[in-house]
Design a protein that fits this description.
Blueprint (H helix, E strand, L loop, with lengths): L3 H15 L27 E10 L5 H10 L2 H4 L6 E8 L3 E9 L3 H11 L4 E8 L3 H18 L1
Antiparallel strand pairs: 1-3, 1-4, 2-3
Length: about 150
């Protein structure tokens, strides 16, 4: 079970990585297109990042698409070394993207969003983790405790 100090340390480490170097333009991918095959990334060498790309509501869909294409968004996002865990479109909100990111690629991920999505979306980044196993364990222990009381 994750403890608060581990989460805090991970958050601080993530923040430090973003500020390590001056930002430089992202280099476009040399691959012919996105790969939809999940990549194996060592869990101990990665973080999970949830990105929310909120639609700028003063633009319609064709305008947003033109901006994304002009800035090469689909060529640079997600970076090749990131694994898409889920990508959901929430109506009225925008894209909710959960990525597993190698620790040394956090800056590249940030630059991909800054260089490709700004002007079309407002972005939010959240360091996150999979809570499902923790929740399931809690529910099991809660049920066992309830059975013991009865």
């Amino acid at each position: 079970m994750l403890k608060k100090p581990v989460g805090l340390l991970a958050f601080l480490f993530f923040g430090c990585l973003l500020g390590l170097k001056a930002q430089q333009p992202a280099k476009p991918s040399t691959s012919p297109g996105p790969s939809f095959e999940p990549k194996a990334i060592a869990l101990e060498d990665s973080v999970v990042v949830t990105i929310i790309l909120k639609h700028q509501q003063n633009k319609n869909l064709p305008e947003i698409r033109r901006i994304l294409e002009a800035q090469g968004f689909w060529d640079i996002f997600p970076p090749n070394d990131c694994r898409v865990i889920s990508w959901t479109l929430a109506m009225g909100l925008g894209h909710v993207i959960v990525l597993q990111v190698p620790v040394n690629s956090v800056r590249r991920l940030n630059l991909a969003v800054e260089n490709g999505a700004w002007g079309a979306f407002n972005s939010e980044f959240y360091l996150s983790y999979d809570y499902k196993a923790i929740w399931e364990d809690y529910i099991e222990r809660r049920e066992a405790a309830r059975d013991d009381r009865n």
